[in-house]
Model the fold of this input.
Amino acid sequence: MRAVAGTQRDLGWRHPDRAVEASRALLAWYDRERRDLPWRAKPGRSADPYRVWLSEVMLQQTTVKAVIPYYAAFVWRWPTVEALAAASLDEVLAAWAGLGYYSRARNLHACARAVVESHAGSFPRSEQVLLSLPGVGPYTAAAIAAIAHGVRATPVDGNVERVVARLFALPLPLPGAKPELKRLAETLTPAKRAGDHAQAMMDLGATICTPKRPSCRVCPVAAFCTAHAQGIAARLPVREAKRERPLRLALAYVALREDGCVLLRRRPENGLLGGMLEVPSTEWAQALPQSEDRLRSAPVRADWQLAPGIVSHAFTHFQLDALVYRAVVPGRVSLTACADAPRCRWLPRGELDRAALPSVMRKLIAHALRAL
Ligand code: SF4
Done:
C-alpha cells in the first residue's frame, strides 16, 4: 500500500455551502463543455431510460470509444427494450462479441425481458427496485435513477472515486475506501439536476481529473479541491498493491474442414464466457498435459500440427497462455470419438465474424489459420 503523508480530510468540506457551490460550479462547466455522446439526451430534453441503461451496461469495464459502435448497432437493431427482449440470446451474444465480460450480455437480455414482463416495459424509478433487475448493480441503478428519472442518486464508478478521493484528499486505500468515497460523493449530489451532476462527474473524471496527470489548471472545481491545494492530486487515490495475475495454460485445437468450416464448441451456460462458442481445448490449468497426452483431448482424429508461438489473453483474474494445434480434416470427418460432440458444431469461416465468439477465441482461430 502506498501512503500519502500529510493529507487532511474534509478541509473546509464540513460547511454545507461548500458542496452546494462545488456542484454549482461543476454544473456550469457541464453546461458549457459536456461531451456529446450518442446515448445522452440533448440539453433540456428527457433521457430515454432504455438508452441510459444500455449504455451504462456497455460502459462497465469498457471505454467510451469501444462502446460507441456497439451501442449504435444495438439501438439500430433493437430500438426499444421490447425489441431487445424479443431477440434470442444467441443474437444478443453475437452482437455483443468483442465487448468482453459476456455475463453482461446475458444479463442484458434477461433484464430486458424482466422489464417487459414485470414492469410493462418501463424502467423503474427507484434504485431499490432497479437493483432487483438482472445485471443491475448499485452503480447502474443509481445511474438510471439519476440520469433517466432525475432522482437524487449518486452513481460512483472508478472515475468518480478518483475525483472524490482528490476533492476530499482521502488518504484511505482502495478498494477498502469505496464505502467512504460513496458517502462523500453523495454529499456533493444536488437535489435538482442529479442526472446532470452525475454525468458532469463522469466527464470531469474522463477528461480533466485523469488518473496520471490531472489538468487542475482548467478544472472547474479546483477552488474546492483539497488534493490540489495540497499538491498531491496525482498521488490519489491510494491503492493497495496489486496481486499478480495467476497464469493458466491450455492446448487449443482448431480443426478446419476441407469445405472451409471451423469446429467450435458451446461453453456451459454458467461460468466464464458462459453460453459462448469456443475453440475446443484442454482444461485451463496450472500445467499442460504431458507431451504424450497432448492430442488426447483433440476433438477429432487428424494430423494435428503445433502452430508456432503462444496465444496470450488477459482476463480480469488470470492470464491464459495457449498452445494451438491445427489440422485440416476431410469433409466427412466424424465426431463420434469426441465426448463433447453434442456441444460441437461446424461453422463456415464466413460466419465467424457474426458468431458469438469471445475475443480470445478469435485470437486462437486467427493464430491457427495464419499459416494454413
Ligand atoms: Fe481533479 Fe485537479 Fe480538479 Fe482536483 S483540481 S478535482 S485533482 S482536476
User: Anything to note?
Assistant: Confidence is low (pLDDT under 50) at residues 1-11. The chain has two domains: 2-235, 247-371. Residues 163, 166-167, 208-209, 214-216, 219, 221-222, 225, 227-228, 233 surround iron/sulfur cluster (CB under 6 Å).
